[in-house]
Design a protein that fits this description.
Chain lengths: ~190, ~190
DNA sequence: TCCGATTTTGTAGTCGACTGTCAAAGAAGA
DNA sequence: TCTTCTTTGACAGTCGACTACAAAATCGGA
């Protein structure tokens, strides 16, 4: 997608950034968002507090999962790639399954970690609300090629609701496979329709 | 519901409390949550800042909707009151409509005001997340009398998703009627099923 | 190996949320 | 009216998010 990450400088920068965010999310989960200070995050990530603010303008930004768009794009593409006559819910179900199985094990583990943080820590969830809202729009857009406008949006909302519900249940048993749970839930929705 | 609010003391206390919260919500809407200081709220409500903190331990609490459970209970009851052979989605649709039309104009306006705050201000949304999650459970429980377990949960999740979607759209046009939008969206979902 | 550009860090300071305490003002009851 | 209890307000202070800035470390290229 991007340039092949040229210089050492840029690589180091990226590493620093992700390190800071990972430590932040870990600490948020361990001791709560409010109870975690930026100073503690800086210490954990072995950088100066001012460096944290350089990468993340506000504490809240530490909780924003910035790669949701690429995921949403992947889902949109996968939706387009589904067979033409598939029932709508199954289109989304198949697309989501395709995207998840296409992830490398490392990517998938990282994704689960961050999704867990999002679902578990209210402040993180709030920080990502905008993204969820826009993903919902993308999903609806992707479906609009297959069904009339309003129906596409309703379906997208229903699928998002069922998906979030499945993930919420997953948080109570984090050792199960969320992709599996999601697939199963969408299967049930498909039966309902 | 409560005791008839005997003494002058208690009445005055209650009035102070609601005055503070109303001014807070108004200011949040006017200038944003972060940009509003507790001092400004105190000034608007004509009390001392320390008095604000006596009623609301944290700034966030100023925006916590403390009556969501009674609403969820009302919906559960309304679900039970729907005719036996109604299709599941229409049960929920009818129950929600019944609850909203049952509200007095004042109550309804207040509810809209607070729902708008919840959907618009991330911090408030975070503070109320737990309540939304539990409402989802209540909805599923209420439907379980009418359909097998897993289906009830899936349906509840789908309805919650569609409902949140409708409310999210409403925030972009706050002069429209959210209850109307919600009813319409559920009607479309009903058509899909 | 040295230079210029960039990144990192420390420091000093602002602002607002929140706490604790104590004295003043008001209400309830005798 | 006098006493007692509660609510309120003022004040002083802590803590953490965030800013501005200049010094120091680091990197890339010549």
């Amino acid at each position: 997608m991007d340039q092949p990450a040229t210089g050492l400088r840029e690589r180091k920068k990226a590493r620093t950034r992700t390190a800071i965010q990972q430590h932040a999310l870990r600490l948020f989960k361990e001791r709560g968002y409010q109870a975690t200070t930026v100073e503690q995050i800086a210490e954990a990530a072995e950088v100066a507090p001012s460096t944290v603010f350089r990468y993340f303008p506000t504490k809240e930004d530490l909780a924003v999962l910035d790669d949701y768009y690429s995921l949403a794009d992947a889902v949109s593409a996968a939706v387009a790639a589904q067979p033409p006559d598939t029932p709508p819910v199954d289109v989304l179900r198949g697309a989501l399954r395709a995207v998840f199985t296409g992830l490398s094990p490392d990517d998938r583990a990282a994704r689960y970690e961050r999704d867990l943080a999002m679902l578990t820590i209210p402040e993180v969830w709030a920080a990502n609300l905008g993204m969820v809202a826009r993903s919902r729009g993308l999903l609806a857009d992707a479906m609009r090629a297959r069904m009339p406008g309003p129906a596409a949006r309703i379906l997208a909302d229903a699928v998002v609701g069922v998906g979030l519900g499945a993930l919420l249940d997953w948080t109570r048993d984090p050792h199960s496979d969320p992709a599996e749970a999601l697939d199963q839930a969408l299967g049930r929705l498909s039966d309902l329709l």
